[in-house]
């Protein structure tokens, strides 16, 4: 206990608070590695939040709720892929439009679920490990989505670094024309990457409404999708740095809640904006520190692909 703040509780809360952003950022990393800039992450998260909440409440199953949230995010990402990869609309404008679309649609469908409690998502039982002092609450007292998010980061790192499919995806992101000339299906690769990214954004949104809050509140993502986008860029498109950035955001979020609970005389508005401001500042500093030798953005990022070229 330091200054009225329980450090063990803080670190344990950090992992849960980081999960929605970590999921969304991991998915966006894959999409951007394929050369697509998806600014619709916020819309996919909020749509996943309401779809996951509605599914869980209707079926009584949080697992189906998470699947519903992931599916909603993937569907919106599919719409983004259709508009940008097949109809060649501007990626930036389309992403912003779909964010507004997701926010509006979620507000409409969420009206009937306000004030409703979702079915609880149980924490995994690790037996004696959960009772260990310090390590037990920090590492072995979480729900399965927290561990899934960590496994997805590891799997994404291994996929991009060691698999042939990951090499193809990176080739598409670096030079789509050359990848097409080699016979790779650029649009199919990008469609799959976007669907994966959208599913993870939707899963992150569902985690917000089913576990983090847990209730449906209009606009409850509160900019988490934009933080995920910033984390990917400042992490230099590396999964391990995405993990650090997401946990930094989650740690500051958990800390500001603990400061409020401890009764510190800090204006609530300053505490509320602290996770966003501090995360961005630290990421900017880290990005500047590692600029020398750090990989640039995928060369084809944000550029539409013309199969005839």
Kindly state the percentage of residues in helix.
Answer: 55-70%
Largest beta-sheet details = none
End-to-end Cα distance: 63 Å
The average pLDDT score comes to 89
Write down the Rg.
Answer: 19 Å
The poorly predicted ranges are: none
Categorize the overall geometry: globular
Number of helices: 12
Could you give the order of the helices and strands? HHHHHHHHHHHH
CATH fold annotation: ABC transporter involved in vitamin B12 uptake, BtuC
| Corresponding CATH architecture | Orthogonal Bundle
* Structural class computed from helices and strand pairing: mainly alpha
Give the domain tally.
Answer: 1
Percentage beta strand? under 5%
Extended strand count: 0
Overall CATH class: Mainly Alpha
Membrane topology: Multi-pass membrane protein
Main location: membrane
Protein name: Nucleoside ABC transporter membrane protein
Organism: Rhodobacter maris
